[in-house]
Fold these 2 entries.
Entry 1:
Amino acid sequence: MNKKPNEVFTPRNPTVNPEMYIERPNLERSLRRAIDGSQHILVHGESGCGKTWLYKRILENDGIVLTVANLGNASRLGGIVNEIENSVAEFSGAIKTGYKETKEAEINAGVARGALTHEGEFETPQIDGLERAFKSLRQQAGKRKCCLVLDNLESIFRNKKLMSELGDIVLLLDDPRYAEYEVKLLIVGVPEGVREYFSRTENRLIVTNRLYEIPEVGSLTPAQLAHFIHTGFIKELGCRLDDEMAKDLCRFAFFITSGVPQMLHEFCLELAYIAEDNHDVITEPMLKSAAAMWLQASLSSSYSAVEEMMNDRSTVAGRRNQVLFALGQVHKDSFNYSDIEAIVRREFPASTAGKTLNISGILSELADRENSLIKRSRKANSYSFVDPKYRMCIRVMLEDRGQRVQKLDIRHIPLLPETSITIPTGLSNIKMHQARHHLGLYLY
Ligand SMILES: Nc1ncnc2c1ncn2[C@@H]1O[C@H](COP(=O)(O)OP(=O)(O)O)[C@@H](O)[C@H]1O
Ligand SMILES: [Mg+2]
């Protein structure tokens, strides 16, 4: 029996589905080597690129005992150590003793605690909490390797106090008293340059020397994406897809999701539901309907942000809209006005011939707006997207209709009557051509 769409495509499920897990041998090898190495590990990559699935898959497969603490809870719980203790207690099912009681008991017992190498960062009970947590992790792991994952680093990245607590934890693990538990830290998060962050703090060399950063967890390659599509739609769902349609689906999916695993699951889920209603057949118009549904379901805040940047009347052949459209067509992470100008001239020849366009002015004006889609990057005169979602959104949302840019209206996506598929307004064949144009470069 075939599975249900939501058993195959699981955009936000933190539990790895082995059937749908796409291997990324380079990343997996780096992570395994890092685990065997002597340093603690940093895993970074944009949200939805598969950091959590990567470490879960590898650690679980390799029989390494892992506990995940969410740094997103640290602030609320008054510190990272508190969150670590919480997750260890949850993991072991142990009932935690309140800090106060423990402290009193220790004072009463006359135990001197707090062998800290530097001052002021911790209260004694927290240190004891850390040791308690490590001890309990080691007990559960027995002789096996044991990792403490600190996930969602981005949530504390701007919090000086918590970042310095994190630095202290890394250092403390060298202290013989903590080192004996042999707990390896796996720090996971969005921001790059975490090493640079620590290098600005007082303990810089000591902290950075203890961290090993594996390569960025990024998008799937076109070949990995093709494997994903094949496994999901053909193997797991039993959809009927001929080779040509499968290629079109891969190109289109890569074009709009940039190969980001979470986005891919989201889009494929929409498409799988449509196919389910249509005897498991997938046709080209369904791709576009699914993209429109995806935009509506998952990218509506990006949609509003793009809409906000557009001219008031979408019927006007506004230069700025042409620029916005062109932004969606760039595939470099960082771009400058001449990249955009080339696209605007190529896509809108009649309205640009013989004219000065002032693209640099338009880009600069866009970047200066509040909640803009683009920001200046470090390299002179270049820009990048504030969030990669904006590019995905523009790719589905805006279309080059002759000399003007047309916006897909996600508030009025026509419902798909069973078996007869209609193309939502604003999405025509042009989109497929754009996808082909781009992916001719990569695929097949
Ligand atoms: N290797 C993979 N193969 C297939 N799907 C994946 C893979 N990695 C991640 N995903 C999908 O992407 C979603 C987001 O992945 P996740 O690991 O939570 O990303 P991150 O932790 O980087 O935000 C997962 O729920 C899953 O649906
Ligand atoms: Mg994650």
Entry 2:
Amino acid sequence: MSASLSETGSRLSIRMPFDMHHHVRGGETLKIVGEMLAQRFAGAIIMPNTQPPITTAAMVEAYRAEVIAATGPSFQPLMTLYLTDTLDPAQVRLARTHHGLAGIKYYPRGLTTNSDSGVANPASLWTAGSTPFEVLRTLADLDAVLLLHAADGFAADGSELDPYDQETHFVRETLPRIVEAHPALKISVEHLSTKEGAAFMSANQSAHLGCSLTAQHLLLDRRDVHRGGFRPHMSWWPIIQREEDKLALRDLAASGSPFVWLGSDSAPHPIGKKETDCCAGGVMMVHAGIELYAEAFDLMGALDRFEAFAALNGPRFYGVAPSDRTIDLVREDWVVRQTFHITSDEPRMDEIRPFRLGEKVAWKLAA
Ligand SMILES: [Zn+2]
């Protein structure tokens, strides 16, 4: 079985994709997300920045059960632990051996949603003897993946970095040190957003280093985010960058490299957390979680490379078998009409607004 594109290029059949970066949240939000996720994806990397974060094997197991209850049993949740300064290597071993742990997520403290428990000092990742260093040694030993939120908050002299420079700084100063200190460790750079990041990946890709790309970073640049005024429903971490960054990411996605894959970073927030004086980063993407990527690959003229990007490369890196199911997509406009409701007593905390509300998406799941 392999991908097929109809003669007119308006219908596409691919193996069921995997989303290698997804925030399913919990409770009612998880129920809403789970159904849409399982419709489109055979499995997903489940992010651990819940409240509280997932830091023990028992929490991994409990969250996994919650995800399966929301998605149904044919969906494959690939679980992660949250790297803190005190994460216990014994818990990593236990979670990997018995509870389907796929990897560990690194969050620089304070730089994204629920990152207060993240690693305080990135240098601990490459400094022998620190707890995070020992965790990464264990992870390499277990052939599991380190997922990096590739951002630094501060320069070496302690000065605060411009948010548009956080990833570039990480790629230049932090990532090479992690790679060098842990040569046997598989590393995935998450939601790559800059041309410097794309250049690093092209120059250094290997069986031990890859990256995920979001649809929003392939489709948008900062002109879209600021057109007519700042748009909170286009606010993400990492931040949407310049057109030249978007074009570099498109080139990387269209390159056909086996070390580049789909990771939507779908991250629902209630409207009250978006339209407020301190807007949360992240937007629900799962309602069009594969359709938006088909739109981007169509724009790039790269639909023949879409199946590998969406359904094969990520699972291969993580040592997971690709799906033997397929999904069909058609090139057909539809408008995102629906917001999603959850129970809350607080004003505006009971509704989630999806990406492109009231606007068109150019590809659609076939009925
Ligand atoms: Zn994320």
